[in-house]
Task: structure prediction
Amino acid sequence: MEFILTNHSDYESPIIVKGSSVKLSDDSNLPSEFLSKKGNITIQAHGKNKKTEVLIGLGDKNTSSKVDLTGYMAKAAKMLQEREIKSVAVDIDSFISKSIKVVQVIEAVVYGFILGSAKPGRCKSEEKTNDVSEKVELLIKKEIEELKRITADLEIIAEYINRVRHLANLPANIADAQYIKNEIQNIIEERKIEGIELEIHDVADLKRQKLNLILAVSAGTESEPLMLELKYRPRLVNISSDSLFMIGKGIIFDSGGLDLKNAQQLRDSRDDMTGGVTALMAVLAAAELKLPLGITAIVPLVENLPCGNPMKPGDVYTSFKGITVEVANTDAEGRLILADAMAYAEAIGAEHIISIATLTGSAKYTLGEEIAPYLSESDKLVSLLEKASENTDEPLWRMPLWDGYKDNIKSDIADISNLGKFGAGVITAALFLNRFIDKADYAHIDIAAVATPEKRNPVTGKGPTGFGLKLLVEIARLMSKS
Result:
């Protein structure tokens, strides 16, 4: 999909998408009652300049938000996709208001069209998965050179969001550890991304480095685990301690192990590697955007099954860091692989670490499906996360690393237990992870509820949303400036 900035007199597309509000109802034959309802969309076969018009009702457009507008654009994109439209123009000026500036309108169009028209991870043999169009013309009164760069950057981010969604929606028999590793290698090669290095830690290396928690989770499957270490080092930039490490949970399929999940949970567990692929794609996106910051993603890719010689409730393992861990529940496996990966990151010099994971069911019951809880004691990272959340419209809410709950994860036979004895699941999971960090600034983001919500998302529809990709890239951008 190509986005082209042009003026109103030079566009070529036969169809134009326009915003219509109650105050601007004279520009159509539609009654104001239609236009006053936000998100109403209709096609007028013979609009002005003999162009077919797709009119989006905005009501009082000064009350619309960028989030609303992105959803409208996604809805329009789907409508045009059904009609197999190959070229469309969008009247950017018609959507500008007191609350939405030109850059925000362009952002809504790019995200709405790219994310709204995608059908990620689908395996249907006869389904068409074409983009909404080959060309989208963005019509503005005055072409600004800076907008071209901004538009190109937005395209890159949107494409990587769709890559996260695609992998997260693929079944586990296709998107296993080797598949994801190959996908990363193919993206690097095909897109000719500079400054990237992928280090692959296989079983032998995991054993050599005593990453025993990762090995314990993988013991119940015949599929060998991998840990991917994806490094971006920009040219001509002095890599300092401000480099950022992203640690992502990559559970390919989570049966729960011997503490087996129920049937519905089993059907839905293929997306448990979403945090991992989000971290990997965020590094690749940052590299394509040429951010002046060293960034590393460390992602263990593991299946959690009850076959072979699986870890058992009550087993004790010695982690990479030397902390002994009692496995109170084999379905609390995500924090085990993250703990080893985080301790490894700090051992190789990480001073700023963000973990992202579909970690706890408690996240949904705590904040619902639109807000992700995060936890951190680092003022610097808290500031970055709050600002990044505001800039990307990916909502976060800070929760406390409450000292009073530390006893919740004590074990009678080991240093620590992987499951709390009572409630507060989001907090106790983060307290567990926090034990594996000594000096680094650290923050944890739990995307369990927002990654693949039950409720249909207005932009991405049913299935994975790609939540967190924009957030991580924006954190990296803000950190590179500071």
Remarks:
- The two ends are 33 Å apart (CA to CA).
- The mean pLDDT is 91.
- The chain has two domains: 2-140, 157-481.
